[in-house]
Amino acid sequence: MTASASTTSTSHWKRFRTLYLLFALCAAPVVASYTAYYLLPPSGRTNYGELIEPQRPMPALALRELDGSIVDPATLRGRWLMVIVDGGDCGDACQRKLWQMRQVRLTTGKDADRVERIWLIDDAVPLPTIVMREYEGTRLLRADPAQLRSYLALPAGGALSDHIWIVDPLGHLMLRWPKDADPNRMKRDLARLLKASGIG
Predict the structure, then answer these.
(1) Which of 43, 137, 189, 194 is least crowded, fewest Cβ atoms below 10 Å from its Cβ?
(2) Tens digit of pLDDT for each residue in 27-46?
(3) What pLDDT, on the 0 to 100 scale, is given for residue 7?
């Protein structure tokens, strides 16, 4: 490199040094975010319930009202569904899930009409009248337990009666809350879903 070329290069750097530094400062956050996203993905998660991946479309479940009339599963679409499965005798654990669904739905305030509570009864046992009165507003449907086991995502060793599930307004099973779930954390999950979604 000649002295003239060296001088020109130095002069060019001095002239545009501020511009280069400004560009570097502006680009640094973008580069850092891409690096963090692709090379250092976060291990934590913001949701409390476990997301079902891939989401499962609701199959042609054999559903019946308490009076025996057939229910087309497609009629359940259009709202967010909180779903439990339990026997008709509905012991303490069953009633606790019914209470959780009712309370969590109430916390959604003006969005409560976007959420429906569903109790899928997996046997032919008559329901206690007191439970039906206490949780009026919950949709009570009898269902085939074999179909439910193939549709609802269960963890290893889990039982249908352990969990509360979320089905989206398009009919996709998308989230499962753990056994003995914390209603406050359930509420946050549901609030985020309702806020992020323009459907249902």
Answers:
(1) 43
(2) 444 344 334 333 444 445 58
(3) 57
Q: Which residue bears the tokens 């000649």? A: 2
Residue 24, C-beta contacts closer than 8 angstroms, at least 6 positions apart: none
Q: What is the pLDDT of residue 36?
A: 37
Name 108's Cβ contacts closer than 8 Å, sequence gap at least 6.
Answer: 114, 115, 187, 190, 191, 194
Residue 120: HSE in the Cβ half-sphere, 13 Å Cα cutoff: 27
Contact indicator for 185, 92 with CB cutoff of 8 Å: no
48's CB contacts (< 8 A; 6+ apart) are: 177, 181, 182, 185, 186, 188, 189
Length in residues, the chain: 200
Sheet of 164-167, strands arranged across: 50-57, 172-177, 164-167, 80-86, 115-121, 139-142, 63-64, 70-71
CATH code of domain 50-196: 3.40.30.10
% residues pLDDT > 90 (the chain): 70
pLDDT at 9: 58
